[in-house]
Design a protein that fits this description.
By secondary structure, this protein is of the alpha+beta class. The protein is about 15% helix and about 45% strand.
Amino acid sequence: LSDRIFVRNKDRMVKILFETILYIEAERNYCRIFTKTKEYLLTMPLKSLEEQLPAALFQRIHRSHVVNLTHVDEVDENTVVIGQKSLPLSKSLREEFMMRIRTV
């Protein structure tokens, strides 16, 4: 199934459609997936999760953040805004990110 991922939430496996993911935040060996309605905590490193995401939709913007490009609302020199959340944008990943979002 190329449009979703299943994650463990308590004692069940829950479907998350890629299009509903706003961003993913890493904390050591944990990842938090943020959607519009819910937050999921996974026990896996960001690199492993990132490999399962479609590259056309997602972009790493910082060592601890991956964003869904379709949900980006604002960008400035050091931050990416999705909804009400400001996320750090690293200098080393900035150029690739700006090319991907097609700035004018």
